[in-house]
Amino acid sequence: MKVVETEKIGECAYCGAVGKITRDHIPPKGIFSKPLPDDLITVPACPQCHSDETSKDDEYFRLALQVREGIENHPDVIKSRPVLLRSLEKPQKIGMVKGLLENIFLAELVSPNGIFIKNQWAIQTDMNRLRRVVTRIMKGLFYKLKEHRIPDGYEALVCDEDSFQKWPANVVQNYNENLIKPILAQKQRVMIGNDVFSFKYGYDKNNPNTTCWIFTFYQRASFLGLTLPPLPK
What we know:
By secondary structure, the chain is of the alpha+beta class. It has 6 helices and 11 strands. The protein has a 5-stranded antiparallel beta sheet with strand order 7-11-10-9-8, sandwiched between helices. Strand 10 (207-217) and strand 11 form a beta hairpin.
């Protein structure tokens, strides 16, 4: 007898829409090698927030991270590399591969003191796509840990280490002192898989919905996430 799966109805962790939902993995399960870890996290997501487009972003995210310098020697990257290379041979992946190849350039590697070391090949990745994936991860983890969505009107901001340092100095100092340093001081971090993904999390004691996250992928690629209340009018 054929078993018909019951359509699940619930609230989307990302947009709050109530209706048919699926389960979305946070972070994307594709960044892990097989066999997949037992402690993968999922959240309910509507078809609009968990679509073919988000899946394409997830694939781009995995590829863009795994070609970064210093990450190629991570055990999980080495293990999954043959699978990744085979997947890139598929006709539907031609556009993604072409996009990355077109953004390879020769960059100067310099020391912290500005002394030239050597030229090396680098890839200019689409940071907007990377931030979209990390933002979705932050929203999903917020929902998972707090059991409710980020409140309406709040900003969900994500940046990498370099772009954060380009923010206004007074803003950087404020976040460093009140949110980021206390989180970095925490010894405990949540880790999934073979240190493929980990995060630390903290919040403002006066407003628990104001949160700060530090996400790390493959032990090297880090992103900062913030959920901030609406600016006073």
